[in-house]
Amino acid sequence: MSQVARFKAIQYAVRIPHPPIAMFVSYPPGFTYTTTLRALLEHVQCGTLRKSTMTRELVWPRSMVVRLWSDLYAGHSLGRIITRRVVRDAKGYAVAHRAGIPKSGLPACDFPDGMPDLIDGTQRCAALAMSAFGMYAHTSQSVPVSYRVAFDPLDETFLRGATRRVNTNPLIMPDISTLFVDSSNTQNVIDAFIERAIRASPIGIEQCDRMQKNLQFLSTLLDVRQVVVCEMGLETTPEQALQALQDANGWG
After folding, report:
1. Sorting pLDDT into bands at 50, 70 and 90, what band is 201?
2. Residue 232: φ, ψ to 5°
3. DSSP secondary structure string for all residues of 17-53
4. How far apart are CA 233 and CA 84, in angstroms?
């Protein structure tokens, strides 16, 4: 790694609210870092990591969101995420990918050296952020959508939220976002759920302990699961960005 590349990597890392755990140069002139799922999704939630104009609108059905949570719970990886830094004008539109010079004449805002955009992993990040933090998103037809995911702590299975089966079963947590929105209150949420389950259904001590253990494990999932993010800088050309996508997805 050259001194310039190393300096840029450290410079970017300091500027990220949740510093990367490890980093190394990947697609020139960018770098790769490893971070937690929570840190990545909080960037999506607060808008410091946005959907790129070159990616499609939200198209995942709720069944795929449920399956994604099941895979993460089972220990599978989220997969590689690719971002690309851009400069945005005062209205929030991307105006330049190189040199940081706006093309529209409007003053550049946000990060002076460019703001990261998601170019690969939009569906995964949006689905997780919406279901973990109770967020809403809009489709291309401006229709607000949300992904509510339920969890059965006895069977360790995930289900679609807001269904009759979920709403009528006191042993199913109807919305897992209650475990993640306020991490300081997670244990209170778990205790309240267990207490309601005991009052509503004749369950034994062994079942209560199992529910408690599985809910606590789920509540730590965003903090223990890590994800690799490949970030490309402002100097990255569209051709390099396309090549990075091809390499990451194994396209011919």
Report:
1. confident
2. -105, 140
3. SS--SEEE--STT-EEEEEEHHHHHHHHHHTSSEE-T
4. 6
